[in-house]
Design brief:
Length: about 230
């Protein structure tokens, strides 16, 4: 979605930093408030509601717990819509660059809608199917949700690892408007270690392997990437 942002190389990093600062500050305030309102920890964990945070709300506000939980539900709904919008836009971008199977179907933008409707509908259906797994097995659903964390870390490894390799080899970096300067290398190599590994890594490895097979046999002959396409348009 950075393609639609003006001066993205400068704006996007600033937005990311601002998000961490403001959300971190608000999260700290919320955490301190929650800790003050916990009360007896064992009673909260043994709550009949099945959700300790609901019991904390009830202990602190009594009848106001319903309103507070309703606010969280609404926020989760908005977060879900945002996540699906992001996922559908990523699917559309890769399809536009011929990087996924059936790319001609996913890259379509219907006149009058001005959105990649096929990508949006596909993402919505897959999201519903994944959530439906929780009705059969919460363990399997938790493994799938944990997969997103591993995939996110893998994306960090690819981008940060590439930058670190260039710095180690002494090769020039791409020109940018936002830089961490001399502290960039140190920040890039400092990364917390993963603990309590689970089976989601197996799922991620499977997805990575299938993606690699598709890229090797088909996508590498057609996928050119957004940078070359933008340069052609310029």
């Amino acid at each position: 979605m950075a393609e639609e942002v003006r001066n993205a190389s400068r704006t996007i990093p600033r937005i990311m930093l601002a998000t961490m600062v403001f959300n971190g500050a608000l999260g700290f305030v919320m955490l301190v408030t929650l800790c003050f309102c916990v009360g007896n920890l064992q009673d909260v964990l043994d709550t009949k509601t099945g959700y300790p945070f609901i019991q904390i709300f009830y202990n602190a506000t009594s009848q106001g717990a319903t309103t507070m939980v309703s606010i969280l539900i609404v926020c989760n709904e908005f977060a879900g819509v945002t996540a699906m919008a992001t996922a559908s836009r990523q699917l559309f971008s890769f399809a536009r660059d011929q990087g996924v199977p059936f790319h001609t179907f996913f890259e379509q933008v219907r006149p009058g809608w001005d959105i990649p409707l096929n990508a949006v509908l596909t993402t919505t259906v897959f999201s519903i199917l994944l959530v439906s797994i929780s009705f059969g097995s919460t363990v399997a659903f938790n493994q799938l949700t944990a997969l997103s964390t591993i995939a996110l870390l893998a994306s960090y490894i690819l981008s940060i690892g590439s930058m670190t390799l260039l710095r180690i080899q002494g090769r020039p970096l791409l020109k940018c408007q936002f830089s961490l300067g001399r502290y960039g290398f140190l920040i890039n190599i400092l990364d917390p270690s993963l603990q309590n590994m689970n089976w989601s890594i197996v799922i991620f490895a499977g997805v990575l392997m299938l993606s690699g097979i598709y890229y090797f046999f088909r996508a590498r002959h057609k996928y050119v990437g957004p940078v070359k396409l933008v340069r052609k348009m310029d």
